[in-house]
Amino acid sequence: MMSTTVAATPLHALPVEASIDRDAAMAAVADLLAALGHDPDHGDLAETPRRVADAFLELLTPQPFDMTTFPNEDGYDEPVVVRGIPFVSLCRHHLLPFRGTATVGYLPGERLVGLSKLARVVDHHARGLQVQEALTAQIARTLDAALEPDGVGVVVEAEHLCMSVRGVRSAGATTSTTAFRGSFAHDRRLQRQLLGAGEV
Predict the structure, then answer these.
(1) Which of 96, 109, 113, 196 is deepest in the core (most CB within 10 A)?
(2) d(Cα 135, Cα 126) in Å, to the nearest integer?
């Protein structure tokens, strides 16, 4: 008979490219404002370096949490899917946000995971300098390692401000990326369930 114990696997922060120096970040924002022809000490711009530094600090600090899992005592063997998980991340090429939603699903093996943890995995990996392709793969890799499921599927759809407000200025255009592992990689029925579509 399967154990009824609850297991918690710590999800550590993403690899840190450099330690965060808030004061240096504020000074850098002030220098950028000056380089762009604005006086960082003038009027309401005086607090802008602090605000910008704190905004980046928030967007680039992953929140650690425990991936709580439970034994799959009833042998549930159909996909568990959470759709519409919102996220905001920063494009590592332009430092502009991209935002959208993720659909995350897994085919349980011996363990189940609390549903809120699927959203936490998305948020955790979104808090960094990212490209959407890497974000999608990281979410799938984390779930695969933590749950050892029979399969994992991730779909990420997002609008990138580096594309919609500058350059080509394609406002409203979205980018879709997928990661299928295990049974999801080969079973089109599972892919259709994840995508919520009749055909893939």
Answers:
(1) 113
(2) 7
